[in-house]
Amino acid sequence: MHYGSYETVFLKRMRARYGGPRVGSAAATAVERAVNLVTFVFARIYFPTFSNSLKEIAGFLGFRWSASPASGLEAIIWRHGWEATRDPAAKQALLYYNQEDCEALEIVANSVIDLYHTAPAEQKSPRNDVVHTGEMKRESLFGFGRIEFALPEMETINKAAYWDYQRERVYVKSANRPRHRRQSTSTLPFKLRPNATIDYPRPSCCPDCKSKRVYGHGWRNKIIIDLRFMKHGIKRWITRYVIHRYRCQSCGSTFSPSNIRWTPAKYGPDLVAYTMYLNIELGLPQLRIDSSISKLFGLRLPRGWSQRMKATTAESYRSTYDNLLKKLSSGCLLHVDETSISVRGVSCYVWVLASLDEVAYFYTSTRESDTIHALLKNFSGVLVSDFYAAYDAINCPQQKCLIHFIRDLNSGILEHPYDAGLRRLASDFAGLLKPMVETVARRGLKKRFLKKHRSAVQRFYNRLADCPVTSEAAEKLVGRLQKNRYKMFTFLDFDDVPWNNNNAEHAVKAFASVRRVIEGPTTENGLREFLVLLSICETCKCKNVEFLEFLRSGAKDIDEFATSRRGQRVRRVRQRTDRQIEA
User: Fold this and answer.
1) Among residues 17, 91, 95, 364, which one has the fewest Cβ atoms lying within 10 Å of its Cβ?
2) DSSP assignment of 81-115, as one string?
């Protein structure tokens, strides 16, 4: 047992220079089974010291060295002095120093063993001087949020230090300045001058008896607040609708023009679409959206207006969302992933289903697999996922994300830099995967070009069985390879199946970018409504469709809208070309 790589480097150098020790001897066993204690301490145990040096850790544990030599540098100087003078006192000091190093190493090793036995990772430590990093709360010197005070007097003093309190009560009184009236956010009625008035024409006859003897019988008007999108900007647009009622002298019935559909909506579709664009695609909080729209367009939106518009819009696009889920769960390729979110302090999960051009999110209160199993019970395509065990029960061809495994290999090497077996496993797997990635880059995801790598996969697994590993970290990764042997390289047998879960991870990143905006204050219903609109937004991006244009169009089918937009662009290009030819 040694501390650091100096001993093993020295022994290997001596063996290369003078030959190895006799097989079976104690020296040979020591060289082959040497244990570097640094690998068990580095990035695993954080002693209250400034470094991981043996001197500092053993000194913290109570060991004390003699006066001299007190460091490795001084020991080197003493060694050179002894080689020059052959002083027996210097030699004895060096031997005693090395003996003390061994005693210090024993104390550190016993401490590490004691920590392992008394504080397993899955339980809380019974010792008061040991804390698991997973149980530590993240601390910040400049944290925001409510602070719980032990005394009510301290709470009163803290409230007096708030920014609003000082601006509105303290500074005004101190400077004797006139108090400014705060802008009102109330919904009191105010006059909006209409930009356009639509007055529907008088009907020619009664719709019931077809008599032409009709006369006016009152009228109603309605103000619709909306936005008008121009070529280089947006402006507020107020429309006044005037609807007359008529009465028939022959049959006595009252009616309005048949083409009028009186709607209870006060705000127009373009204003709602622009609000959803700010909230879903740009990730702005709803309170800021209400405030900015009120200031930019001179409106007095009621409190919580964006939230109500989001609920209304999500309900109107529920059929579009259901069709996305149905299409994804019956397709030929599906990427799936999940991530966590806090809803009112409770940890929940958001799942994502993605293909090459569709994305859909859904919410569950736990990470249990019942929902995903019910959704994909009839799925027969290729499922691309990570190594979460919940996906293994889905009865379909599966491709595990190889970039996940590469990252785990890399993390293992960084945590165990001296593990030769783990490094050899990583090198073999990277050497196996690299030619496949090069073939994909050159030929694409076509099985007629990729099937040639099947023999290399077979040879890799044969070597894996013939060369067992000894370290625990490498053994876990080998076990994962063996368990998922027929799920690691499925992409070699199918067309257009990627070897990574990039599509789902990209969709998860889109959700993670707005997670901090909605996390905490949102409710389960609010989160579900948000995921409906986010699914449509990300699907529009995959199909090269502007989310705002799709909302403004009022269409419910993204494919039909994308096709019509492409057709319009083609017609415009042809018309422009014809005009150029004529000119």
Assistant:
1) 17
2) HHHHH--HHHHHHHHHHHHHHHHHHHHHHHHHHHH
For the chain, the maximum distance between any two Cα atoms, rounded to a whole number of angstroms, is: 135
- CA 447 to chain centroid, in Å, comes to 32
Three-state SS at 246: strand
CA-based nearest residue to 312, from 353, 361, 245, 267: 267
Q: Tokens 């901090």 appear where?
A: 516
| Residues contacting residue 19 through CB under 8 Å, at least 6 positions apart | none
Share of the chain above pLDDT 70, in %: 84
Of 579, 578, 537, the residue nearest 558 (C-alpha): 537
Number of residues that make up the chain: 583
Cβ contacts of 203 within 8 Å, gap of 6 or more? 214, 246, 255, 257, 258
List all residues 6 or more positions away from 397 whose beta carbon is below 8 Å from its beta carbon: 381, 382, 383, 490, 494
Amino acid occupying residue 65: W
Residues with Cβ within 8 Å of 126's Cβ and at least 6 positions away in sequence, in order, are 118, 119
Least confident window among 73-87, 261-275, 544-558: 261-275
Smallest Cα–Cα separation from 406: which of 341, 488, 349, 469? 488
How far apart, in whole angstroms, are the C-alpha atoms of residue 404 and residue 504?
Answer: 13
CB 348 within 8 A of CB 525: no
Dihedral pair phi/psi, residue 527, rounded to 5°? -70, -40
Q: Encode pLDDT of 65-119 as tens digits.
A: 776 666 777 888 888 888 999 888 888 888 888 888 899 999 999 998 888 776 5
Please state, in angstroms and rounded to a whole number, the distance separating the CA atoms of residues 89 and 67.
14
Please give the structure tokens belonging to residue 356.
């090459």
* Residue-wise burial string across 539-577, b where 16 or more C-beta atoms lie within 10 A, e elsewhere: bbbbbebebbebbbeebeebeebbeebeeeeeeeeeeee
146-201: per-residue pLDDT in tens?
Answer: 667 667 777 777 676 665 655 556 555 555 554 555 554 444 445 778 888 887 77
Encoding tokens for residue 473? 């970290």
How many C-alpha atoms does 257 have within 13 Å on its Cβ side?
16
Closest CA to 275 of 261, 244, 296: 296
Q: Which of 462, 461, 469 is nearest to 416 (CA)?
A: 469
| Helix locations, 136-241, DSSP H | 152-159, 163-165, 171-175
